[in-house]
Amino acid sequence: MTRGQSIAWAFAVVVLAAFTLFSARSVTHGFVAYYAASKLLVTGELGPQAYDDRWFGAYVQDITHSNVREIFTPNPPTMALMALPVAAIGPQPARTVWLFASVALFTGAVFALARERGRRDRAVPVVALLLALLAPAVLTNIRIGQGYLIVFALFAAVLIAFAERRDALGGIALGLLLGLKTSGTALVVVLMVQRRWRAIAVAAGVAAAVAIAVTPFIDAAMWWQYPDVVRAFVQRPSGSVTAYQTTLSLFRRLCVADPMWNPSPAASCGPIAFAIPYALLGVALLITVVAVHRAPRAHAGLAAGVVLSLLALPASAEVHFVLLGIPLLLIPLRPIELAIIAFLMLVPLEITAEKFTTGWWVLLAYPRLYATWLLWAASVREMFDERAAN
Q: Which of 20, 41, 259, 340 is the most buried (most CB within 10 A)?
């Protein structure tokens, strides 16, 4: 570890510790969704009513004795397992334990990814390291107690295990991602191209085991309703708000008028608002498959799978973009690329997403989305470069 990296680590750890201590004092939305779901699971009350946003919001207020509201939609029933270790204690101490455990897992995962990059390639640039550790997405996860620091740690475990050819271990971590948050689907495609059938089989088995384990303790009707709940959630007019930094949100914002959520779109092009995002994702997946086939052992293939898994989410808000730290740590970026991506990851959404909400100005409202696409492109380029070098 270089002196610059040591200083960066020390600075980041101090900032994260201080911010965690400060954030532990309050009860906010975010963590309470996990906590409330786990409480319902423990008491045997978790059922389809959790997908009623009003009912679940009232339940959150009842158990936290606060005005905080949250929704369980569009999570699978298994999400209720994530806060199970802290469900037996009160909401405030549970939040404190959750925050410190999340930050510890996250910083350990960043360290492991940086070490893996240094062992196989070269040291992570200090700017990329600090960006991965202290991006607004990281601090937002801590401030509201969201679960994506834990998701980041699971993704990191998947990538490191697969990079070291420990397919069973990687399959376990991937199975937990799929089972708890239905996240990481694009990684399965990457593994199929790499013909890592053992890893896929283990991941499928773990995901199925997680689902089976939770089913006796819930109203099983939740499983039948879950796909419809997700579809209805994606169709909500509120899906066009710029807080959702997704390709789908961008095109809906440009094309689909709504008197409450989008009164001034740039054009009237509703028929393509859904088609183009899915077409773009399909093309990106196809390009990724070709690139992985040409460079099957590259870190970049796994990093591209993480980014595509993020792009596939129907409603990605600030907290989800903590996952961009993974390609930042693994992919060698050119200075101009790193500078542009850093700007897009750091610019406050209050300056973009909350200001540019009408007409063609909306194109300026999606910096996190553009950073995600740029990191996907960098991952693909790295795979083609590796193939050319060999």
A: 41
105 with 182, same domain: the answer is yes
Average pLDDT, integer, range 219-224 = 95
Domain boundary (216, 249, 265) is at 216
Q: 78 with 141, same domain?
A: yes
Q: How many domains does the chain have?
A: 2
Q: Which domain holds residue 272?
A: 239-389
Q: Is the pLDDT of residue 389 over 90?
A: no
Q: Are residues 163 and 284 in the same domain?
A: no
Are residue 186 and residue 250 in the same domain, yes or no?
Answer: no
Residue that has been written with the tokens 């925050």 in this structure = 99
Note whether 173 and 294 are same-domain residues: no
Residue 375 tokens, joined: 């990191």
Answer whether residue 226 is part of any domain: no
Q: Is there a domain that residue 344 lies in?
A: yes
Residue 324, burial from CB neighbour count under 10 angstroms (0-12, 13-18, 19+): buried
- The reply to whether 190 and 276 lie within a common domain is no
Global confidence as pTM: 0.95
For residue 151, pLDDT over 90 is answered with yes
Residues 65 and 147 in one domain: yes
Residue 233 lies in a domain: no
Amino acid (1-letter code) at residue 188: V
Quote the pLDDT of residue 388.
62
pLDDT tens sequence across 162-206:
988 899 999 999 999 999 999 999 999 999 999 999 999 999 999
Packing angle, helices 136-144 and 3-23, rounded to 10? 30
Residue 307 contacts residue 372 (beta carbons within 8 Å): yes
Could you tell me if 251 and 142 lie in one domain? no
Within a domain: residue 225?
no
Q: How confident is the model at residue 315 (pLDDT cuts 50, 70, 90)?
A: confident
